[in-house]
Amino acid sequence: METASGEAPAATRPPASLRTVILASSTGTAFEWYDFFVYGSLTAIISRNFFSQLDETAGTLAALALFAAGLLFRPVGALIFGRIGDRFGRKGAFLSTVIMMGGATFAIGLLPDNHLVGGASTIALIVLRILQGMAVGGEYGGAAIYVAEHASAERRGAITGWIQSSAAYGLVGALGLVLLTRTLIGEDAMAAWGWRVPFLASAILLAISIWMRLKLDESPEFVRMRKEGQVSRAPFAEAFLRWSNLKYVLIAIVALFFSQGPLWYCIFFYSQVFLESFAKVQGAWSNAIMIGAVVVSIPFYVFFAWLSDRIGRKPVLLFGMALATVAIFPSFHAFANGANHALVEAQKRAPITVVADPATCTFKIDLLGRSKPKSGCDIARNLLTRAGVNYRNQAASAGSPTTVHIGDVSVSAADGDGVDVQALSTRTKDIDQKIKGALETSGYPKSADPAAFNWPLLIAPFVVLIIAATALYGPMAAALVELFPTSVRYTALSVPYHLGIGVVGGFMPASAFAIATATGNIFAGLWYPVAFGAVATLCCLLFFPETRGRELTRVSS
Fold first, then answer.
1. Could you tell me the CATH number of the domain that includes residue 366?
2. What is the pLDDT of residues 199-239, one digit of tens each?
3. CB 3.0-4.6 Å disulfide test: which of 226, 534, 536, 537 passes with 258?
């Protein structure tokens, strides 16, 4: 007997092999991560096309904030699709998410930029990013649970490690297509229209994902639960109002995701922003460096997931988060030296000090573009941030004019208060030219020289951080699946994952960039992942249980 589509009904079709389950789930998840990561790979171009009303610093921050906005809505998607997955089945939930993600990503590629339709395109972009975030919110938990519920207890870590590595495949695909497109058509065409290509390509990936996932059947654990009449009628209440489940939701957020979220986005996203905005590395080179780092990471996800089957989930998780916490600062200092040693030396030889009345120095970046920096202090600090250099603030007496000292060269920065828009623009450009001239005179390079890259200083820190990130992320799916009962597993796993990684982690790039802008220290934003990592390490050590080898049918509320 066949259905109208010519396909055998699920009841008579032989069950999919474990290899097919892993391939279909991992491939679909990789495609969804690709869709989500394309935006992060094109942050600089997105800021110019959809936030052109802002200056460079505010535009970059706005684009990063919009990236975070997509992540902010991941918990909403986790709630919606978690309920669907726990009430009606895993397969239907994560089939829906891939359709939502692919459609939203394709639509972004069709958006006109705000040069043509103004703010309407920015609003549409925000809506589509929200839909992307909701889709990812339902995807990860569904795929991880689906695969884990097919795996035996003794191999669950290694099997779910392939789901964990799918994020890396998605990021490689996004970075690779971005790099290929900009290499083939050039930077000017890439900024004008080529940025759309990676978004539009998602239509092909969407078709493949749907085709592969339609071949899958429901997970055996959910089928068993449904036959036994144990399907939860109120997964929200059971997961979040029953203390036996809620306590593990809270432990998972603090003990795992306070570290995993900021760490992952620090390594694989903020590092690219850091290289381009502060080390002045060209976009194509930063893409290539990131592709290399992500490719290196792929086998480590599966290795550390396999290792957790041998020695336990908790030791591997603790190793990853502790290593990351202590390695972030020295790694980024190495990035700066390896990518643009001339800039680091210039800052030592000719340090920069902004001497100004503290009352005139504020930190205010208007993401709507309705106001511009007006005081001499704000204008100067904004321009120095755009130049990607460290500077020190020094208080002057009240009413004193702002002066920027770059080595032995001094530049006065007159206030723009009380002048019209045109005069303010002219004054800002004048200060900009003077600061750029002083930087050039003092030996500050305009951009990084690829021929002078110190590759060991670029590669070695990435390897250390990659080992930390994969040790933390590789065993995570197995540990989370083993933490919660089948009846609420989709909801109870997905919500803390996306609260921790989506919110705490997603805001890491924007927060770190804002901290660097406010303080004048390009490394200051790294305190964000380090502080969260320290809290997570302590909480994991004290409260997170060892879950290796648990039989999923015996995990109860």
1. 3.40.30
2. 898 888 888 878 877 777 777 777 777 787 777 777 778 87
3. 536
